[in-house]
Amino acid sequence: MIRHVAVITWLPEATAEARQQVRDELAALPPLLAGLRGYTVGADIGENEGNADLAIVADFDDVDCYRAYRDHPAHQDIVKRLIRPIAAQRRAVQFEL
Amino acid sequence: MIRHVAVITWLPEATAEARQQVRDELAALPPLLAGLRGYTVGADIGENEGNADLAIVADFDDVDCYRAYRDHPAHQDIVKRLIRPIAAQRRAVQFEL
Fold first, then answer.
1. What is the pTM of this model?
2. Chains A, B: CB contacts under 8 A, how many?
3. How far apart, in whole angstroms, are the C-alpha atoms of residue B93 and residue B44?
4. Which of A9, A35, A42, A76 is the S-S candidate for A89 at Cβ 3.0 to 4.6 Å?
5. Which of B2, B52, B95 sits opposite A93 (nearest CB)?
6. Which residues of B23-61 are buried (b: 16+ CB within 10 A; e: fewer)?
7. Domains identified in chain A, total number
8. Where does chain B have alpha helices with state H?
């Protein structure tokens, strides 16, 4: 199994509505994805200073299923239309579970 | 439940042995932790350019259990002795699951 982790920091000017829309649209992806074992997305609770703002953790049967998610048109649409315009930084890791 | 996600990028000079030691010592923490529901740590598989190098995903019953992990002397020892000396960047998020 492959676990995909992404952590995103928003630009200061990113509005609460724009951040919420990213979470809402990402959360609607799972029915479109093959080989998905788990999908969580959430906003930082503000427990630690210097944290990023959003995290995604997605588990897939294998690397091919992860790639299909990464490259899925509905996912790429969210990335280009909603995430990139308001993201200051994104860091990701894929690892074997 | 609280999900803690951390993503770390190593300095270029961080050796394979030093990276492995971080993973090994982190993986030994769970028996010391109260209210832990899941703990995974893994090295990036190299699927995407520009990725970070290490990810940790840890699930806790509540924020207090997360704080106990964050502040646990055995964890702080790993952070100070093994992670900080070879880390170029660390980004984290805690979110409600």
1. 0.96
2. 96
3. 18
4. A9
5. B52
6. bebbeebeeebebbeebbbbbbeebeeebbbbbbbbbbe
7. 1
8. 16-27, 63-71, 73-78
Q: What is the CATH number of the domain that holds A86?
A: 3.30.70.100
Domain range enclosing B74? 2-96
Are the beta carbons of A52 and B97 separated by less than 8 Å? no
Residues from chain A that touch B64, judged by Cβ atoms under 8 A, are: none
What digits encode the pLDDT tens for the residues B9-55? 999 999 999 999 999 999 999 999 999 999 999 999 999 999 999 99
Q: How far is B38 from chain A (nearest CA, A)?
A: 12
Residue pointed to by tokens 């190593």: B10
pLDDT at B83: 98
